[in-house]
Amino acid sequence: MAGKGAKYTRVHRPVKVLFSQGFDNKHDALHAEWAFKHQTRRRKLVFLADHGVRLPE
């Protein structure tokens, strides 16, 4: 890393991408991100498990 990342990720390490999904346009991507962020933690964990993401313990 060149040390040019966002301030939050520089301070809160380590950062690891657990899941990503492609969208046809920015509107759909932002809508999906908003919807995911407004779920409960439990629903987020169920979503990730349903998509084959295994969280580190």
Automatic annotation (TrEMBL):
Residue ranges occupied by any GIY-YIG domain in the UniProt entry: 1-46
Superkingdom assignment: Bacteria
Classification via PROSITE patterns:
GIY_YIG
- InterPro entries, sorted: GIY-YIG_endonuc, GIY-YIG_endonuc_sf
The name this protein goes by in its record: GIY-YIG domain-containing protein
Please tell me the species this chain comes from. Levilactobacillus senmaizukei DSM 21775 = NBRC 103853
Species lineage, top-down? Answer: Bacteria, Bacillati, Bacillota, Bacilli, Lactobacillales
